[in-house]
User: What shape does this take?
Amino acid sequence: MKRLVIHPTDESTDFLAPIYNRLPDVTLVTTGYSRLEIMELIDEHDQVIMLGHGTPGGLLNVSGFRAGLYIVDSLVADSLIRKDNSIFIWCNADQFVRRYNLKGMYSGMFISEVAEASYFKIYTDQNTVDRSNDMFAQLLGERLLVSDAMDEIHTSVGHQYRLLAETNDIARYNSDRWYISK
Assistant: This one.
């Protein structure tokens, strides 16, 4: 399976690299492409994995893509509609996926920083946030290595991540915001 990974260069989201860094046949896009070039790459790949910071409007362009505020937005959604196995990991990706009737696995508001946790009245420390971030990325990366079945991947990652949620408030919050649409 040819995979396109769109992961804008941003030190604060480096923890997401284990999702894709061991997968075969990956095209990693971190900066420098235009929106049109991204849409062409989407058409050339079997699966698209989009990771980083975002809003309900899309995946934010934080690293110098030749695009506006977003590198994945309503214009790119038209290309993604033909994919049924995309992965959208950014804050409030659920609203983006639902708005454009896209298919795949995706996150809702996903806490990945202490400041975000505080905003949602979850008082925690960096170690707890890091443990949640690292576990989620590791679990998803491991499942993608052994399976292409989205239901199985979603269930397995959700179940294992929920085990951490028993002792980690961030994982508990995030576990409730891990979705799939078919």
